[in-house]
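Hi W., the 3VV complex you wanted:
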Amino acid sequence: MLGQIARRLGQLHGQQICNGLNGVRFKETHRHLQSSFKTVRPISTIPLWPFSSRPRDFSQPNSSWSPEMRKAYDHYIALCDTDNENGEKTKGPWRKLPSYNRSIKYATGGIHLSKFIQAENRLFTRSVKEQGATFEYVVFVNKEEKSCVCVFQSGRLLEGAPGHVHGGAIATMIDTVTGTLAGYLSGPIMTANLNIDYRNPMPLGSVVLIHSALDRIERRKTFITCKVTSTDESKLYTEATALFVSISVGHLFGSRN
Ligand SMILES: CCCCCCCC/C=C\CCCCCCCC(=O)SCCNC(=O)CCNC(=O)[C@H](O)C(C)(C)COP(=O)(O)OP(=O)(O)OC[C@H]1O[C@@H](n2cnc3c(N)ncnc32)[C@H](O)[C@@H]1OP(=O)(O)O
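Structure:
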């Protein structure tokens, strides 16, 4: 595996990959991405990262988290696989997913490729460096139930109606969480359809749970349902359904094979 990546990187260095994915170098870059993503499987079936040097996980507790955010995080962490003091493993139904600042980093060798391919790009939800200003969130998946829950704390830069979270920011988080579950279950996907019902205004700075579950998979289509609630689940803020279509990486570069 390491040899394979070293060979690929050697090829990349040799051909001076530029930031853009256009012009003369497009075909070569496409070919490298294609071969890298050939090894992308649903991330539920592979260890999250095969190397000791992991990319930074942006969903770790930080000083911007409110006590409510920390409490909800601790609640789900306690339900994840853990090692106790005796070094024994305790099985839990949940698994915390890491959150990287580029989706390419989830692909085999992606951490290295991300340094060469459109290196300045960032995942929208991880694009603001100031902690707590926009999207603070952590996603936990339940493999057996084919579901996930995201603990989300909105920041001051996400205002829509005065004192409340912008509907587009809520849609962003729903797309992110349902898309993460669809990607976890089905591999590379894109959002084809997203339907959202906003039921109650969400106070800015509040902490909410975004629950997503698999509805069904039909051929290339993965259907996901979603509900956004208060952390005690007594208040319903938003409901949504989403359709994700499995894609080949070539699709991202205009080819349909
Ligand atoms: C790549 C790495 C992955 C790694 C793993 C992830 C791990 C987590 C990582 C990081 C977390 C972040 C997660 C973020 C998630 C966010 C994702 C986005 O926001 S994506 C941006 C917005 N979406 C677009 O820009 C799509 C634009 N649309 C298209 O490209 C195409 O229309 C596409 C791919 C959706 C379908 O095109 P076709 O040509 O491949 O396929 P056709 O034949 O049209 O459709 C296939 C089936 O789907 C149905 N379909 C297509 N669109 C539909 C629609 N809008 N409504 C209903 N059905 C639809 C069709 O009727 C067909 O169904 P029948 O198989 O015949 O039954």
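The chain is about 25% helix and 25% strand.

W.
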